[in-house]
Amino acid sequence: MNTRREERRRAAIEKQIDENLRRVYEQDTTQQIPDRFLQLLDKLREQE
Questions:
Q1: Which residues form the Anti-sigma factor NepR domain (predicted)?
Q2: pTM above threshold 0.85
């Protein structure tokens, strides 16, 4: 009986980790690229 309880607890923890990782990824992908980085990319393109 404890095994099933542990399995449910572990599944709940894994689900929470997945949700948190998804939130972090979504936040990261919605942030704008800093101007310094865009300027660096422009310089690199000019060198090609």
A1: 15-48
A2: no
